[in-house]
Every structure is written in C-alpha cells, then in structure tokens.
Protein 1
Amino acid sequence: MSLFSGLSRPMKAAGLALVGVAVIAAVIGGITLTSGGGDSDTATPPGTTPTTSDGATPPSSEPQGTPPASSPPASSAPPSSAPASSAPPASQPGQTGKPGPGQPGGDQQAAHKWVTVRVYNNSLIQGLAERAANDFRASGWNVTEVGPHQGKLPKSAAYYRPGTDEEAAAKALALEFGIEAQPRFEGIQNAAAGVIVILTKDYDENDKSGGS
C-alpha cells in the first residue's frame, strides 16, 4: 500500500510536489556541506601561521623582515686645495728695495764721503798729492786741502781719530785706493778734524788713474 493511497488525485499531486522540493533541498544542502567543508580544511584564518600535518611550521617564502633603509652619508664639501691668499707685507717707510748705506751690499764708501779729506805729499814725486786729490774727488770724496808733509813715513796711509766718523771714512777710502788706514800718530794728533792722507812713492806705483 503506497503512501498516497486513499487520497484524492489533487492531494496526491500536492504530496508529490512536496516530496520533490524536499529532495531538491536535500541535494542542495549536501552540495553546500561538501563545498563548505573543503573550504574549512584549506582556508587559513587571517593572522595565523599555517602548519603541516605533523605540526611543523612550513618555511615562509616571504622575507621575515625588511632591512631599514640605509640613509645616504651626509654630504660634506671637500676641503679646498687652494692656498689661502695672503696680502704681501706693506712696505715700511724708508724701504726702497735697495740696500742703504751701511747695509750689506750697499755703497758703504758713499756713506762716509762727506767727511773732509786733506792730502799731503811725503815723497820726492812732484804733484803726487794733487794727482791723488783729483782721484779722490773723481770718486766723490770731499777733499778740502792739498800740500806737502815734512818727515819720512814708510807707507801711504789714511789717518783718523778712533771712535769718530773719520775712522769709518779713512777705512773706506783706504780700501778703495789700496792704501792703509791707521790711527793718527803723535805728530798729527791735534790737527784739524777730518781724514789726513799722507802719500809716499808707493801710491804712485799703484796709481789708479794710470798717471806717472
């Protein structure tokens, strides 16, 4: 005896329709369960680390950390290789670039030529004192007197009073004309100021003017 025996034809049709709906609902539910269960087995919730069947954590293909960005070195201007410019020292008053009197390389003779010079002949050579005086004047010396000298001296010399301007002047003149420079001797000790040049025949032999 069937489930629908004893029912009228309309009721049988309605019962078959309900059964069909139930079957379709059951099929849909089974499909849903099947697909949902598969998803729950493979999906990983956010924020959790997946594990293998034995409990080990699989290695991650993603880097564990991002290294900090290296900051570029602070730029620094290279030290300048150009030497610091320096202004030349200002010239001092009186500096002309040439050595002055008394300085190394300067005309030391010219520094003393203002001292008066008197020239005397102590030889038998006529005009020797005048010729020597002309030589001295040509070189810029201040010759104020020419004359004879009584007595006898061994060599031509320029005589001076030690510690005065005459000393430096006599030495400069003697060096220039090849004679000696000596302190005044007793016979001319009290003579007037200035260098006293007394000539003998040796000046004629060394005469720079070339005269005879």
Protein 2
Amino acid sequence: MPPVTDKTLIPPSPSEDDYVRQVASAEPPALLSETDPFALFDAWFQEAVQKEANDANAMALATVDADGLPDVRMVLLKSVDADGFVFYTNLESAKGQELASQPKAALLFHWKSLRRQVRIRGTVTPTTAEEADAYFATRARPAQLGAWASDQSRTLPDRLALEKKIAEVGLRYGLGKVPRPPHWSGFRVAPQSLEFWRDRPFRLHERLVFERATGGWTTRRLFP
C-alpha cells in the first residue's frame, strides 16, 4: 500500500480544459443576493435537500477546549430561524462541555453536489427545556434509549458494554414513554457573521459575507 502522502492519492489540480468544460456546464454566474442571509440560506438549503445524496443538514461544528485547542466534528442541524441554528447533543460530551465553558462556535455547511458552502460564526446559548423536550419526543425510540445509555465522549471498554447499557435502559422504560435525559439538550448558534461561498471556474470563487450590525446586516464581498 502506498504511503498516504503519495501524490498519486491526491487528485491533480484541474487543467485549463477541465475548467473550460466546467464553465460550459456551470449555472449562470448571477451574483449572490445581498438581502436577508436567512432567506438566502433557506433557498440554498432547500436546493441541497433535493440534490445532496444524504444529510443535507450535516454541518461541521467547531469549538475550543480549555487550552484553546480547536475541536471540530459533524452534527445535524435540527432547526433554523432568525434567532439561529439549533442542534442537540449530550451536554456531558466534549462539545457540550466546551460550549458550556466557551459559548462561541463556528459552523460549516458544505454541499459538494452544489459546489457551495456556508460558514457561520457566532455566540451559543442553550435551547429551552420545552424545545429540547419537543424535539426529543420526535426521535426514534432506539435513539431515545441511546441518549440515556451513551456516556458520550468517554472511554468505552468494548461494544458489548454499550449494548448492555441500551438493553438495561430498554428494560427500565419497557413499552412506556422515554423521557428526555437531564444531560441531553440543545444549543443555538446566533450568527454574528455568515459567509456564502459559491464555486466559480479557475478558483475565482464568489464570496459574500453578512455581518450583524445595529438594526440589521451589513454585506461585503471578498476576494476568492
């Protein structure tokens, strides 16, 4: 097996002919809308739901630990409105503890099939208990049991230990309703900035940034 650094494993940069073919098949180069960032996000997201192979709501969540070292992982967006982007997790997990200590985060949506991405940076607040209860009630029962059974981010001796805990939780609740665990809830990222990026040929990409200001949003374009 060749080493992971072997250049044959990394796709080469596109040639000029490759870019010419991309131009021929690309969407019309209309400029991004400089209006409401949430309306633009919704339009892009709805298109991603139709065209992405799976998990159009997947987003990278970046936090920092107690030493200031960045940490990033994929989570799923569960709701979005003018107040922010919501996801749910175990509050005792690494990301839960990091957000409790440093309530700021960055998000990244990358829709490869659309050649688009959205970057978001902002402050983080907990969702309400009512919001968390309402979402938890929509989860499949095995996922509800898993939320009780998993000591997320902590050492797992072996797979059997997890399956045993899931079985124990299942016996505890029988066929009854599974309540939301007290250590499981949601976070809302209220954006201070959103950057919309769209692929253009020859790496001359289009970038539009919305930044929160008193009474609304300011916009500016960035060099690619």
Protein 3
Amino acid sequence: MKIGGIILSGGKSRRMKSDKSFKKINNRPLLEIVIEKSMKQLDYIFINSNNHENYNFKGKKIDVVKDCIRGYLGPLAGILTGMKWLKNKNNNFTHLMSFPIDSPFFPNNLVSKFLVHKDKYEIISANSGNRNHPVFSLWDLKLEEELEICIKNGTRKIDEFTRKKKTKVVKFKNFGYDPFFNINTEEDLSIAESRVLERDE
C-alpha cells in the first residue's frame, strides 16, 4: 500500500483574519511544523492551498495543489483534490492521509496506528477525549468518484460522507491536552505556545 499525505490549507482562515499557514508557534510557522511532523510518517507529502504556489522546506520543494472545485467548499473538496492528484501522479498510490494545517500536536504514530486497520475499512479517522477528528483520516482512493458526486450534490461536512462508509475510529490519549487541538484564533495560538509538540502516543 502506497500512501500520500495531504496538508489541508485551502480555507480562508476567516477567524484568524489572515492565512493561518504562516502563523507561528515559538517562531515556527504552522505549515513548517505540520510538514515536518507528517514527513516523519510518510514518504510523500503535498499541500492543498488556494493562496500560494510553492513552498520550499529545508531545500525540498513541496507540491502545492489548488482545489479541484472552485468556491472554497471546505475540507472535503481538499480531500477530493488530493485523491485526484495522487491518481494523476502515480497509479501505485492506494490511499490518501489528510492532515489539517491548524492542528500541529498530532501524534507521531498517527499513521502507523491507522495502518493496523487498513484492510478492513474504507476510511480510518482519529478520536480523542470522546471527540472525533475526521479531518485526520486515511482514505481509500477508490472513494474518489463517489466523493465527487456527493460534493457536487451539496455534501460539505466530512462526517456526512464518512458515516455512510465503512469507517474505523481510532482513539488516542490526551496528555493534559487534546493532541488534536485546533488553532482557529489568536487566543488559540497563545495557548499553543505553552504546549509540547512531540508526542508518540
């Protein structure tokens, strides 16, 4: 099984009032942190963004792909974009792993824990503190056509799509805070400053 990882950064960052990809925690942009953490888990990572053309990370050019459907339709559109990108790039890809740009504390063993369930489910997603985090999911590329139809028919929320599919939810522990803590505001950024990035469980 060959997996590509997509960093979802295609939104308008309305609550942050500017592109949150370049907001910083301890002088490091969110985008840089998420790229580094996701690269530890997968060999190929790319970015879904409608705002910038390329990003060089430690000398490596990271592919940046705009939404395949116009209109800022949300993370499902980014996931569909990722599926299409992987299929066009290389027929050997079988799955897409999605990471949101605004949750930099995700576990370093996220993908490995998902892979345990890869043969039995079409979608595998994360849970912590009895709350689901469907933006962190492993997607079978065979879902591409069905997902595109659903989006064009008005589906916008990830769980609207996943609840109809064979989905596995994997639970992760909290370590005094949620490892899938989501940064949406300047206040959230301030909270994030005091948190440790490296977690292995």
Protein 4
Amino acid sequence: MSDKCSIKMKVTTENWPIDGSFTIARGSRTQASVVVVTLMSTDEVKHIGKGECVPYVRYGESVESVCRQLNDILPLVEQGLTKEQLQNKMPAGAARNALDCAYWDIEAKTSNISVSNKIGIKETKPLTTAYTISLDTPRNMAEQTDKHKDRDLLKIKLGGDGDHERMMAVREVAPNAGLILDANEAWPESQLQNYLDIAANIKAVLVEQPLRADEDDKLKHIERSVVICADESVHTREGLEKLKSRYDCINIKLDKTGGLTEALKMFEEARALNFSIMVGCMVGTSLAMAPAVLLAQNADFVDLDGPLLLAKDRENGLTYPSSLVTPPSSSLWG
C-alpha cells in the first residue's frame, strides 16, 4: 500500500450454522464461529479489504483469544504496520491469518492488481476439491457417502475403533471416488499398520494425520503403500525438514500458517523438500477459502469444501460446480 494511505481496522465475529453437524474424532459442532478483519483506507479513494479466520481449540485458540490478539495489534496497524512487519509482530495462527489476508485484499484493491497476479499466477483455474463425510457409525457414513458418491474426491473422517468397518462401508457405496482418510490423530499405534493396510486395499489416495502429533516419530519405521499426510503435525516452514522422514505430504492451512504470506513460502519450501502438498481448510465461509484457492492452484490435493458444509454461505461466495471449486471473484476477495 502507498505510504500516504492510512487505514482503519475493525474486528467482528460471526456464527454460521452448519448444515446438520460436523463431527471428527475430537468432537462435533453445529456452527462455524469465525472472526473477520476489515481494513478500510482513509485516503480520498475508499477501499475495503477483508480476511476471515476460524479459531481452533486444538491449537489453544478461541474466538475471544483471537479477538484479543487482533485488538492488541490494532493500534500498530492504524499507525502503518505493513504486511511484512506483521509476520514478526504476531505468531502464526488464526488471528494473523485474518489480518494478513485482509492486507492482501486491500492491497489488491488499492493497486488494482489482483492477488493472483501479485503471486505470479497467470491464469487461475477451477480445482477438484474433496467433500467431507463426517465421522459416524459405518451405516450412517455409508448413507452420507451415498449422497455424494459421484464426486471425484471424498474426505472421510475417522475416529479409531470401528474404522475398518467405516472404511469398507464408504468404499462399497463409492467404488470410483478418490478417498482421503482423515484420522485427526485418532489411530492407536497398535492398529496403525493394520489400518494403513486396509487403506491401501481400498485404494485410498491419502491417509491424513493417523497418529498424535507428539507420537508421529513412529511413522519413520512404518511400511506404507499409501501416501501419509501431516496436518496437526505441521503449521509453518519451521520443522518441515524433520517431518520428511515421517510424512510424504503436508496439509497447508492458512489458519495454521498465519496467512497467505507464510503459506506461499511454506509451499515453496515443501516443494523443494519433495513433499506432496494438500491445501486444506477449517469449516468457514468463502471469504476464508478464497486465498486458499489461489494457493492451491498447483497443489496435489485440494480440500476447500468449507462453504458446502454450511447451511448458507456469504454473498458473492465461491461456486462449486460438480466436484470443482472456482477461483474467487473480485467482489469476494483479492
């Protein structure tokens, strides 16, 4: 942004009802609670930039704690803090994500240069995204899956006991779909090899975070014939080298990296280390997904179905034709 352009910042919270419920190994919820940062330029031409984050209890966050972080840094933002300076002023996490993405948005609107152009994407394209099937009994998960069996890619939430039956039930009703199996740290080490063998037998394309993050060193010695992806075990570039002996793939989420700025650098470093890359999300609206869709343009796996899990999305949201997610319009973000 121009040095002559000053900005005001506003922090708001929103609750978006989920269509039914969303259940993983750690629990279930019926709404997505998000925090939105709005940056407003105060020069002659008014511009507004927005960013959305989803605080996550697993990482010690709450709506209240994220709002406190953002309100604490608000004076610095209004005094001229830059996006680059922000990276050292706030830790990686949901709060920095919302503010970082709001900076990207307002800079694009102020300069009239899209974020995709700024990050070197010549032409954005629709991407095949996973659709998530919540954790439940094998029978209920099969019924959920049957409604979406014609999608190209499904993400199946697992929870430990009973996962053999869940995997088999889902594969039976969706014989042609690519399957991502997401244990969210719930598999016991005693069942790890067995579950990985089952995943290979049903031709899953990916197994995500099978063990707890503080136990994943055990993956170094496991035989695998299916790609294993880190989620809870990876947040930023820090530690990527160590994970190379444990994982084949990493899941980059903006709420973990603390925004698009760090995510872009993480993507580049992960590629240099020969990781496959998934770009994923928390359950949020299209505003949260928009920057991730740009990040995911060259990813191996895309899991950006957050708005599809909501009862309704915000105006000018992303569109999801068939199994695809389309890039954001300028009226939404970037």
